[in-house]
Amino acid sequence: MRMAVVGAGIVGLATGAGFADLGHSVQCVDIDTGKIAQLSRGIIPYHEPGLEAVVVRNVSAGRLTFGHEPSRVLQEAELVFLTVGTPSGDTGEMSLAALWSVIDRFEAWSASETRRIIVIKSTVPVGTAERAEARLRNRLPEHCLVDVVSIPEFMREGCAVRDFFEPTRIVIGSANSEATEKLTQLHQRLPGPIVATDRRSAELAKLAANACLAVKISFANEIAALAEQTGADYPSVAHSMGLDPRIGPHFLSAGLGFGGSCLPKDARALVRMADEAGAPQTLVEAAVRANAMLPLRMVRKLEAALSDPARRKVTLLGLAFKPGTDDMREAPSLRLIAELNRRHPGITITAYDPEANAVARKLLPSTVTVCDSAEEALNGADAAIVVTEWREFRQIKADDFKNWMNRPIIMDGRNALDAAALNAQGVVCIGVGRLPVVPKDSARKTSEAVPKV
Q1: Containing domain of residue 387, as a range?
Q2: Number of folded domains in the chain?
Q3: CA 373 to chain centroid
Q4: d(Cα 266, Cα 92) in Å, to the nearest integer?
Q5: What is residue 113's predicted lDDT score, i.e. its pLDDT?
Q6: Which candidate, 289, 410, 217, 200, places its Cα nearest to that of 419?
Q7: Is 251 among the annotated ligand-binding positions?
Q8: Where does this protein hold NAD(+) (predicted)?
Q9: Co-location of 155 and 231 in the same domain
Q10: Are 212 and 190 in the same domain?
Q11: Catalytic residue among 28, 144, 212, 262
Q12: pLDDT interval class at 357 (50, 70, 90)
């Protein structure tokens, strides 16, 4: 099948390269000419494991090509996927400017050509597919028959290639049975179950899924805070909860909360849309508020362990919103840095991330020194905060922390490190949702839970 993908971000590129790998002829289009130039040279402009190999393989085979003008894609492609960004602000309102820009640029195709299908994979408010179809039909000639379908993407950054080839489910929201059948056949080579439904239900399914995950993560962090105050061990509590098949073990880890381009945006959008529809989502709204408080909670824990932080050097280990990506959109590290600078003007902050350093140097204030290694970032630090649970940080030994740092105090914001082993070797490691075990040679008094230095 001849198809096109408009929007060459991670989702669009993984979708286009994936279908090309299944034998289809695919053109990936993006108005960012610089990005298209890089892709045409085989350069992937972001970190996504496995994606480069799939792209290069299919470019070499002639099944995957790139372009920067979306207006003519319907003249050549039978099927077009829209994977453009739909960002939202603090109020939750999604911006569909990029989507409407593409829709309005599509040019008519020959009367002899077949009916076209446009698939919206971008996360959008409920009713967007219907509006897009009406917009196209009002503008295009009568012979240009088109169906707009919703197939929301459920890809995870860092796992996009795997999620394309091994989807947990494929939701097809359509008002036309022929379009549903064609898209069902297209996806049958993929192993995930196919759910055929209407367009509005498909659109809401995506928003509801991410809002549910946001609620679960915020619940985990609220219980972790309670565990700290009551002397319980949250990892043990989470393990116990996760054994219940009605709950499951996923998304119960406590830490610095959720970030990225999906969960925060989609949760806010659902709250905004629900308010406008007269069905307030108070639970999701509370989850968003709880998530926003987590960086402040971590700063207060740092303040309990370190006297006069404004005169100290603090290192952030990890900047991306999660491991496996260089994406820093709405990353907890950004809120954490802002909170540290707000509460402690003059604090020295260094940071290191195995993949996000280049992105960080463009985003972070000049007061933050982005280093090229964990050792460089930790050198002379009075405390460190594990922000992203990269495997590399788990390999840092206790002696390394003690030799590199001025004071080996680690705030493990992801419970990624072996706190018991580090504490036993003279490193203060304070996790989330558990009482710290202070090394004997670090505590000034046996009554002190956390040494303040």
Answers
A1: 292-430
A2: 3
A3: 24
A4: 8
A5: 73
A6: 410
A7: yes
A8: 30, 35, 86, 123, 157, 265, 329
A9: no
A10: no
A11: 262
A12: very high
